[in-house]
Amino acid sequence: MRIRPALVPALLVPLTLAVACQAPNAGARTVPRHDAETFFATTAFTGASFSHDGKELLVTGDQSGVFNAYTLILEHGMLVPLTESTTNAVFSLSWFPDDRRILYTSDQGGNELNHLYVREPDGTVHDLTPGEGLKAMFLGWSADERSFFALTNERDPQFFDLYRYHFGPRPVEAAATEEVAPGFERELLFRNPGGFDLSGVSRDGRWVALTKTNTNADSDVFLAAVERPEERRHVTPH
């Protein structure tokens, strides 16, 4: 039988592997073994937000056995706990733009119904999204850094509405607001019409992005003005 040159590489690969597997590995090193406890006894860190003066970094860590918020002092690397939960995991979100307050999120007993909390510099904590059976998500700071955006499904468990939380001087033209914690007011910025996921908001609070899932292989994105929610522009025609 005559073997064509093109077939030689294909035949040599399995032959080479077979020889390599049979040959003794004189240079093999001993691989250390670790028990399960060693792998679980690790520390995980997540998230990062610089303080307004750039001297500290807000992080989340689980060295206590439960995720909590910590500040890492950059000058000497000291890690200082800001929350001390022994039950519910706490995940830090951000320092406030110009002071030492922080935003964080936490659920209750692992029910995945996260609320948004603000921690004051003296350690006082306020639930900014109180209520039973609701879930809230932080969506980012406004451009003027005097308010931030959040989603909650308190009106309808199936859909998330967009709220704006004011913690500084409120614009005169802002809609009617409600007080949710000392020094905080919020307004309903965009009511979800149903059938959409609210995917993002512009930093000036004028536009929202909506995602409509048709199937697991087909989705669409729409742009809507907060002042004209019924006028939705389809930006991904296909």
Describe the structure.
With 238 residues, the chain is mainly beta. Helix content is 8%, strand content 44%. The strands form four sheets. It has a five-stranded antiparallel sheet with strand order 9-10-11-13-12, with no helix packed on it. A four-stranded antiparallel sheet has the order 1-2-3-4, with no helix packed on it. A hairpin with a 5-residue loop joins strand 14 and strand 15. The longest helix has 15 residues. About 4% of the residues have low confidence.
Mean pLDDT: 87
Please provide the ordered H/E string of secondary-structure elements.
HHEEEEEEEEEEEEEEEEE
Q: State the major sheet.
A: 5 strands, antiparallel
Strand percentage lies at 35-45%
Shape: globular
- Radius of gyration (Å): 26 Å
| Poorly predicted segments | 5-13
Brief write-up:
The protein is mainly beta and 238 residues long.
Task: Compile the SSE list and pairings.
Layout: H1 8-22, H2 36-40, E1 45-50, E2 56-61, E3 68-73, E4 78-81, E5 90-95, E6 102-106, E7 115-119, E8 125-127, E9 136-141, E10 147-156, E11 159-166, E12 178-181, E13 184-190, E14 197-201, E15 207-215, E16 218-225, E17 228-234
Antiparallel strand pairs: 1-2, 2-3, 3-4, 5-6, 6-7, 7-8, 9-10, 10-11, 11-13, 12-13, 14-15, 15-16, 16-17
